Amino acid sequence: MKPFPWKNAMGFGLGVLRLPPDQFWRMTPRELACAWGAVMGERAGPLDRPGLEELMERFPDGH
């Protein structure tokens, strides 16, 4: 069994969705997966580094 991809989940929740940390940590993995599906499409696979970079490019945080 693979460990949960916390680094990718945090990158998506905090970086792409721009959730405040308290809201991110209150989410369940299932809720985060639903948000992932809404942004990336239901058939998207796990978030990899190129996928994260693409999202960061599409949705820059302005810093």
TrEMBL record:
Top-rank taxon: Bacteria
Pfam families xrefs: Phage_TAC_6
Record protein name field: Phage tail assembly chaperone
